[in-house]
Amino acid sequence: MNLVRSELLKIRTTNAWWLLGLGAFLSLVLAFAFNAFYAHQVLGGNAEEFGASGEAATVAGQAANIYTSGQFLGLLFVMLIGILMVTNEFFHQTATTTFLTTPRRTSVIVAKLIAASLLGFAFWLVTTLINLAAGAIFLTVDGHGAQLGEWTVHRALLFNLLAYAIWTILGVGIGTLIPNQLGAVITAAVLYLVGTQVVQLLFLALSAWLDSQAILKWQVVWPAVASLVMISGEKSDILPAWWVGALVLIGYALASGVVGVLITRRRDIA
Amino acid sequence: MSDGQRSPTPGDGQIVVSGLTKQYKNLRAVDDLSFAVRPGRVTGFLGPNGAGKTTTLRMLLNLVTPTSGSATIDGRRYADLTDPLRHVGAVLEASSAHKGRTGINHLRVICAAAGLPRGRADEVLELVGLTPAAKRKFKGYSLGMKQRLGIAAAMLGDPRVLILDEPANGLDPEGIRWMRGFLKGLAAQGRTVLVSSHLLSEMQLLADDVVIIAAGKLVRQGPVEQVMSSMTAGGRVRVRTPQADELVAALREQGATVTPDEHGVLLVDGVDAPTVGRTALAAKAELHELGTERPDLERVFLELTAGKAGIR
């Protein structure tokens, strides 16, 4: 518990958290504006024109989308915080002090994982409260009602929470695997932002080559795709069910945590 | 703490290194090294650059895993100490704090992790005279202030044993004098102080004992005086005379080596000062100066590590 407090204090006493928080807030504002405009068009009778069908064309579906505004970049920002929690120790050579204070390195990494998930929770809480307030006002004014009793909305909020916690933990894992700060940040950003499209293209090509639709479902092994699958929750012919995405993500979080602990235990701190 | 009193922690305050070895791919950085460090004294840990000093200290502190051998503090491995900061304080690199964090917050982070009261951070800052810079960010600290912050961090747990790696590096003369007084004070309180350095003149002023290593191996250990006298029996004799030619000839007959320096002083090796005096009397040489040069640690060190220093 002392260690978790210490990790949270480390974050609170530097600038990174509010800079990334500000980034998350700005991306939330932009995403909210876009999502509100989109919902207004779709629910105002232009659904087909804007390519919305199925659940996405319902009021609840649009409400869920609005209430999770800013998620795409928000997840990137919490992952960056997770990465910084580890790589800062090497970049600023504080790993020495940290491991002198706590020679049991497993405890240090576990404390970082717990602190990271608490931070992910905090980011989710703040963005969700902003989204709920602004979204409820917009939906009511636009004449659809706040939709706060809908399961579709509840599910979107809960999986949004899970996604925030897992991506922060994944950030810690990536940080332990790549202690070089710049290397870790670039790798993670590329995996998250560019990776998704590349993977989809690769799997489309693979599916055409093997003449098999089933192969497309396997793109869920890619964390960013798994995240999308988990959050969307929609039934689809080419993507597996939401719980597969959730399991894959949890698997990555566990694996990166365990590998992070093992690597850190063995590493010489020079 | 600030009044020089400290609560006793269990253990004997001894550092014992035994058969310690670190093998890297192509380099045996530390090779079967054994030595002991006693409490109540300042021990200088000396060696040329690349001798393995830092690697040894890092193995002692569980930061680097030894290939073989053991290192204990208070009879236990560092990793097995229950409250390590209450046993051992260590200052390793000057730059080990987050650049964007203030000095006081750096210490509070450590207090939180070690379960020490938060107020301890203010106390140790006062102890090292850094209170005015408490709320300044680390990147605005001078090298001397960084060293002081490192020492403050090491003192948080009021430890019995202190380990410092090159603490005088980058300090100005005033800072070095402060450091010397501070470390001697800690040893006088009965603490164990182990200081690595390659600044030999500084070590001669500071250390009671020395451990000298070269190329990862122990060269000599013991009290400073003993190590120095073991090396230079008698020392070198300085003599000045207007009849230099006669005296040089007479001394050479005695088997001495004589080197004149640029100020007209003869430096005599191989015989002691009384012998030089008698020889001068017999040779009817008038003496203007006669004395024995006190050997310094630097000369002893260079003799001991000759041929073992350098790039490996």
Automatic annotation (TrEMBL), chain A:
The membrane-spanning stretches of this chain are 16-38, 72-92, 113-137, 157-178, 190-210, 241-263
Keywords from UniProt, A to Z, are: Membrane, Transmembrane, Transmembrane helix
A Pfam family it matches: ABC2_membrane_4
Q: What is this protein called?
A: ABC-2 family transporter protein
Origin organism is Micromonospora mirobrigensis
TrEMBL record, chain B:
Look up the domain of life of the source.
Bacteria
Instruction: Give a yes or no for keyword Transport in this entry.
Output: yes
Span of domain ABC transporter: 15-240
* Name this protein carries in UniProt: ABC-2 type transport system ATP-binding protein
**What does the similarity note say?**
Belongs to the ABC transporter superfamily.
Q: Does the keyword ATP-binding apply?
A: yes
Coiled-coil residues are: none
What the entry lists under InterPro entries is as follows: AAA+_ATPase (IPR003593), ABC_transporter-like_ATP-bd (IPR003439), ABC_transporter-like_CS (IPR017871), P-loop_NTPase (IPR027417)
